[in-house]
What does this fold into?
Amino acid sequence: MPWVVQAQQETQSGIYTFSSSPRAILNRSKYREPITENDKHAKYGNIMYDRRVVRGNTYAQYILPATPQPDPSELRRQQEARRRAIERRRTKEQLRLRTPEPVEGRKHADVQTDLYLLELSDKIDESSVECQTDAFLDRPTTPLFIPVKSGKDVATQIEEGELFDFDVEVRPMLEVLVGKTVEQALLEVMEEEELAILRAQQRAFEELRSAELVEVQRLEEQERRRREEKERRIKQQREVLQKEKEAAEKIAAQAFAKQYLSSLLPHVYNMLRDSGFFYDPVERDVETGFLPWLMAEVNSTLEKRYVARTVLDTLIRDVTQQRLEAFQQVEHK
It folds into this structure.
């Protein structure tokens, strides 16, 4: 039982090793001894609380690695080297000179500048590769044999300054660092100057374009006013000609009517006077003009009075309703 527990715990940690000191096997009888009265009162341990028993799902089997697991320190060293490489690549991408952003209405396009041009295609070349996996291993591989250390350690005393002179050794690295810093600073200053020149050119271009747009709008507005003035003058001239034509037709009709009725009117008046069709103009004027106007004025006055009474009744009803609501609120309080 202890051997099984030791192997299971080592498997969960990811390293399959086993070590146990040799011990003698206890001499036990082949069969159990009969239970006596004293054994019935003995206390037995509960296997559910035994630390040597592994708990958990028994359906999933622990798969042992086919190859020996690497050292955790080696894994940490590889992760650190990978992280440094990523940071170094990210720093190079940040320090790389970039093209300024495109102006409004334009965009950048990738162009090949190599000596030999390559054909670009959206179709990706694909190929099938097959491989044969190794046979399933029933047990893990044998760990590497590490011989026991033998012999004596030997040390050598090295005084300060014998192998490394800081002032001399650091000078090349310091010159490289200072040179790179100065070079990067000069590149940044040149980039800022170039960006300032581009901004000034863009600003001048924007001002010139704005002035041209204002001039174009002014010319369009002037042309529109001229066109509207021309259309208005043409319309006025057509109206004048139409009025002159109508006036000439009216004059001609009036002259013809006078000439035609010059001898007809006296005869008609005489016949109407003899027949009694003429009436008093004052009385007719009173009946057709004054009485309708008087009735209309009376109706208007009555309608105004009715509207005033309606408005007054509405105001009185609203004031009464508000007083009643205020009184009810006071009673409730």
Notes: Helices lie at 2-12, 37-40, 72-95, 166-261, 264-275, 281-332. The mean pLDDT is 78. The CA atoms of residues 209 and 215 lie 10 Å apart. The chain is about 60% helix and 0% strand.
